[in-house]
Amino acid sequence: MDKKLEFCPLFIGLTIVQIEAVLGQVSYQIKKFSRGQTVVLSGEECRYLYIVMEGSVKGEMNDFSGKVIKIEDIEAPRPLAVAFLFGKDNYYPVNIVANSDVKFLIIPKTSVLQLLQLNEIFLNNYLNVVSNRAQFLSDKLRFISFRSLKGKLAHYLLNLSGGEAKEVVLPHSQEELAEMFGVARPSLGRSIRELHNSGIIKASAKYIQILDKKALLEL
After folding, report:
1. Residue 31's domain is classified under what CATH number?
2. Phi/psi of residue 175, nearest 5 degrees
3. Domain end call among 102, 118, 144
4. Euclidean distance between CA atoms 75 and 218, whole angstroms
5. In this structure, what DSSP letter does residue 62 have?
6. d(CA 20, CA 22)
7. I want to staple 70 with a disulfide (CB 3.0 to 4.6 A). Which of 41, 120, 167, 179 is the partner?
8. Hey, is 66 helix, strand or coil?
9. Do residues 129 and 180 share a domain?
């Protein structure tokens, strides 16, 4: 078993020896997918817990016009759709596509239930991951409620700064940000230039200096 699993949010606090021991009591499988391959489709029933062991995947969805909107990238060693494994409507809300060649640890739902009963650390970690996910989705909902692209951009920059820093480094390219915002890359670039020309920010490649925080808050 890959030692990187010690850093998976579901196994934090357990050594690789302890992880192997607890997994040895349940059923699971290891499966690989190639870059660009669809792992699961939106609307599929969530019957297995997928944990990325190597590589990365992305969650994306299509709007009614057919435009693809990327929700997020998920790197190893993180789990997928933990909050959707249980509940009444336990269906994947997005498509999961491999960003690179990827390897998964796949645990059936019945085995996850066993793990929750067998190990208190795993139980506590699972609850924390579900709670964190709920908070993330709440933030995402608030983000998409902004109608204008400038409003979304202002919200993103303020969050990135933590409300304190005056200079931030964009962790994503403009193309990746455009996917996150669900807009065309030229539209995003134009909004950044307009904020720059208005003296609200100073943009230089990935470096953004916040010059007028009040104006960002108003947006």
Report:
1. 2.60.120.10
2. -65, -40
3. 144
4. 34
5. E
6. 6
7. 179
8. coil
9. no
